[in-house]
Amino acid sequence: MNIKADLSILDIIGHLLIWVLLTIITFGIALFFFPYSFARFVINRTSVVDNATGVERKMVCDINIFSNVGHIILWMVISFLTLGLGYIFYFYRVWNYALNNSRLQ
Hints:
It comes from Vreelandella aquamarina. The protein is of the alpha+beta class.
């Protein structure tokens, strides 16, 4: 089995521009929502290819950015208390959460 990601440069630029604007407008608060969007963006454009049969199955990430507000607030507090160091761990925890809530279609 192989993993294949289908990310075009235009998709990436569009996604980044939206989040840069949201970050500026919200004075940085959007950065706590960004890891969820980023993980979902990449996972939803990824597929698993079976080498033996050539069958390609898309991955689907079932997370919703706004359903995790409690988790986001907790990590916001941790990040502020640790002067930003907690955000690094937060990014990894979000990826862990996103992968655990993904499935093959």
